[in-house]
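Researcher: Sequence of Two-component sensor histidine kinase follows. Predict its structure.
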Amino acid sequence: MKSIRTRLIRLVVLAILIPTTLATSASYLYVRHQNVAQAERSSLNTLKRGSNQISHYMEDVRRLPTSLYANRSLINIMNVGADAELSESEGVISRALLGLFLSKQDIEQLHFVILKGNSEYSVYNMKTSSRGKFDWLQETDYFRLMKQRNGWLIDPAHRIAAYNTHTMILDEQEIVSFRYRIDRVETDEPLGFLSVDIPTSVFERQLQLFESFPGESLWLMSGDQLIAKTGNTLPVTSERFTGDSGSMRVGDSFVVYAKTKTQGVPITLVKTTPYATVIKGANETALILMLIGGVSLILMIIAASLVALEITKPIKQLTANVWRVEQGDLSARFVATTNDEIGLLNRQFQRMIQRIDRLIKREYRLALENRTNELRALQSQLNPHFLFNALQSIGTTTLQGDRKIAYRSITGLSQMMRYSMNNEQTIVTLKQEVDHLQSYMRLQQQRFPDRFRYIVDVPWHMNPIEVPKMILQPFAENYFKHAFNQQTDATENYLAYKVRSDGDQLIIQVENSGPLMEPNVLETIDQTMRMHRRPEDQQTSGIGLHNIYERLLIFYGDQASMVLQSPPEGGFRIVIRIPVEQEEL
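Model: Prediction complete. Tokens:
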């Protein structure tokens, strides 16, 4: 049994815990959603600025070859080939490439190819190499440039390498190469190619400018190829970048991307932020709410414990006194220590116990004696009627001269009289009651041979069940008095007893032959059976059914029922229900 204190504390805990949990969860989800949305907006704005800045830088790099178109001497050499005027062309080409190299400090290396004669030159470390022979077109990005409409492309991050044997690389590093196709202006016919190598560190420094929080990383990509990065490994593949911009959570990272194009070259800028950083505000809010809820819960548990103690202390005292009364100690003192409902209940219990004590002392013994006398009086009313019928049956047998049958009848009658006149025994087993019924029916069979049939259906396992004495045989006696027809044979006259159990209920059904009763006649019999009679009443009509009904009420009270019925095919039926475990007298 759970105490009031435990239930009250549990109720307070649930009353605080459930709303606090719901509020914390709702607040956490809302704040987290807002944090994620804010992080996406902030990152997209950052990527937009970064894309603009990197696009401007790449646009500046893309314009580098335009200075070559302004050099008419260089364009003429590219038209006729470097072999035509070797001594003059070497100087023109060297000055043009060196000037281009010095025009932007971020350039690490240049490579220049003239298709006419397949000549190539490179500039590295402020030095222009001598003329070389270019015969590996199909192995480079230049081959793709031959067919591209926009005339330039980006070769993503790779390690720097010498373009020919005349150049010696001093410091190997990661670079991004911008490849250009130089065309004849009038016909767009390719004249040569130019490669500009920019260190990836230039782009990495630009990316670092857009890192807002510790742990953030940025990636600059051209298509699905990497140009520069500030982190280790991108946690997602480029196939998931389906739109122009978007965000997603991948593992412990929050990924935001934005796409753009620079003169037809696709550029993708990706930013990753630790997801814990994104939802830091939501976690802090949830922690604050949990701390507030925890403190409130502790305070309310303490308050509920104090209140429960004040409530349950007098209740425990009241329970202890009630237990003493239950054990039969009516001297228990119900002291009211408070002026509330509990105190009022204590005072009411005190008055009730005092009144019960007076009633028991004054009326208990008298009521018990009256109940015993009433049981004995009801049983004794059965004996004269039964004795008259039994003696009449034995007298008839004696006149017929059958002394053995007469002897058995007298012996059976003596056993029945001993059973029915034993007023000290009010409760018997079902077997004893059935044996008494069987003795009576054998006497009637001797009196009316082949004039009736009877059935007593009682399962053997129900024999030990205890029932009130003399509740079966009176029904048989009433049958022979009111329903038995001596003018017919056994097929028309029958009496049937059927005993069954239904849970903790014992069901006794008695049914006999006879004419169909009108409802008003059946109702009159029922009212007569249930009518209260004083011992001095002289009315004899219906005394058998009335006596059985009265004894059932005395033994079982409202737990017993006795119903009279007249089946549609005729006859009379009585259904009795009594509890299997009766109360001890």
